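This part of the workshop introduces the protein records we will be handling. An example says more than a description, so a record of this kind follows:
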Amino acid sequence: MHGNSPKTLRQDLLAQRKQFVASARYDAARAALFSGLAEFLAESEAQIRSVALYCPIQSEIDVRPTLLDWADQSPERILCLPFARPDKHLDFYAWHRDDILIPSQHGVPEPDPNNFLRPQVIPDCILIPCVGWSQSSDVISTSAINHYWRLGYGGGYFDRTLAQLRKTKPDLICIGLGFDWQKLNDAQWQAQTHDEPLDGMLTESGLLG
């Protein structure tokens, strides 16, 4: 059972993720998620030329190899990493595999915003790792519209960034990354009014959305 507070819930989920990564089930789940990610990128070729990814921390799944393979297939494809601003928004800067990164105040490797060789990028797609995730549905006429929500570390960086970017780039695609066991029910956690929805959720079972 999870505690009632989001802080306790995050702590429990992070401990479970660390155990899951060390378990016999992890390799197969990771391979399935990689396969789903590659399939999503191939199917979205016309819409996606730039992808924002992340440097994994606290046992997050490392999708850099899959994204580097994708970028190597065309010089027009761009990868970028987030840089956390003091106002708790994120900027994204172009990233190459051999770039030197700088640890943030939270210990997250970040690009150097003063590197003139790596310009700022507004990505077509943002991949966001989830501590937990949930699903909600709205019924419109006779159709159910599903929404997917991310439980992160509690800083609100992605929510603020997505709210801003979606005003200037309405076709931005935001995909959460996680595993099936991380799905939360309403008794465990519910998205708040300031939470920005995901456009899809990718797990080892495939892309939801």
User: Anything to note?
Assistant: Residues 26-43 form the longest helix (18 residues). Helices lie at 6-21, 26-43, 64-72, 157-168. The longest strand covers residues 132-140. The chain is about 25% helix and 25% strand.
